[in-house]
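During the reporting period the student researcher (J.K.) took over the structure-prediction task from the postdoctoral fellow and processed the backlog of single-chain submissions. One of the processed entries is reproduced below for the supervisory committee.
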Amino acid sequence: MRMHHRLRHFARSAWQKMWRKAPLKCGARDCAHRGSVWSRLRRRHIRVRLHGVPYCMPECLEPALHAALRTTQPAAPQKRGTHRIPLGLQLLSRKQVTESQLREALAGQRATGRGRIGDWLLEMGFASEQQITAALARQWSSPVLQTRTSPLNPALVPQIPKLLLNRFQMVPVSFVAATASLHIAFADRVDHSVLYAIERMLDCRTEHCVIPPTLLRESLLALGEGRSSADFVFECVSSMAELVSIVSNYAVRVSAREIRVATCSPYNWVRLECTSGQTLNLLLRIPADPRSCTSASSIDDDPAA
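J.K. obtained the following structure tokens:
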């Protein structure tokens, strides 16, 4: 009887080990390789997860990527909230600038067609950086990060592509692993669509605050040191089919085990987690003109970085 129990235990253990080694079922309904565990063991196929769902590479992955990228596209450009009191009026109401100073700054902005009103007030010496940052925080109902008490450790903060940090004037300032909470500081308007994309890509919860521009630049410089991820930018993509092909080729080349996608307009952000432990970020500009060409560069060579 004891030998019988041992044999049953051995058979159960062997079956569990075999089941764990068997490739997961593909998430594509029309996958040619779907079947029982025996057929999956006989025909081993490379699979990668797209937001947690396994797909065969590349035949089943590419249609799934196409659908995922289509659904992440913004339906229309987001409009700024009209309920927010303009920054200039906030400073005027608190008597931090005069009416003539505000009119002069607005005239300069209209004449050149560039810059934010806060930048003009700062450049003309009508308001301080602290006053403008405080007004911006009131606009977005956010706290102000005035100083960083300890140096930012890049290894302890989930990494966001450098191009996105510069484009949206933001920087991660702290990460609480116990609650998976990531605090993002903005030196300009708070972009909630980008915060949602970060939550989707990094599987965390975001909190936002406002940071003075000088402190933002210092934080970005500190964050640039010790980065372990690689970022690649594709500024010109002719079509969605070409975009999917680029992502699929990179996934095969680096032996990706997990793929995540999100939209940070005007880019599609694709995050590849490799079996080697390295993370690869692809930033692909959303296709607009079908006659455009495709170009790729490392983030370090990109002029916008």
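The committee noted the following: The chain has three domains: 39-72+229-305, 89-127, 142-227.
J.K. will present the remaining backlog at the next meeting.
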